[in-house]
Structure formats: structure tokens, C-alpha cells
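Data card: per-record layout.
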Amino acid sequence: MRDSKPEEQSSAVGWRSKKAIALGMLVLIALFYVWREHYEHLAQIWPYALLLLCPLMHLFGHQHGGHGHAHRHEERAPKDDQGA
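The structure for this 84-residue chain is written out next.
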């Protein structure tokens, strides 16, 4: 007589499944192909892309893009229970 333990799921969920790994490998191969075939074209726009990214990095790096403003107002709320 065998011990009957509940079987664990043999199919993985998420990125550990065989389909996801195969898709990831195909995406990497496609990116490598695009990189190799179009490197000369991409190399010409790198300086412009860097210049265009600077304002975006400034805005979102300092959280001027709208993220986190609600939390700052709560922290800066005046405290009325002190002093009198």
C-alpha cells in the first residue's frame, strides 16, 4: 500500500511555466536580432534619446510627476495639540 500524499501541482504558475520560459527565450532572440541588424540606426539616435530623457528623469526622479504628493501633505499637516 502506498502513502497517498496530495500531489503538488506539476504545472508551474507564472514565469516558471514552460510556455513562459519559451516565450521569454523567443523575445530575447528577437531583441538580439533587432539589436544586431539595426545597431547603426540606433547608435545615431542615442545622444538625442539621452537629451530627451534628461527632463523626464528630472521630473519623475524628484517625484514631480504626481506620485507621492498626497503622502507629503499628510506629513506636513500642522499639529494643533502642541502648545497653548
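Known properties of this structure: The CA atoms of residues 13 and 58 lie 38 Å apart. The helical segments are 18-61, 69-75.

See the next section for split statistics.
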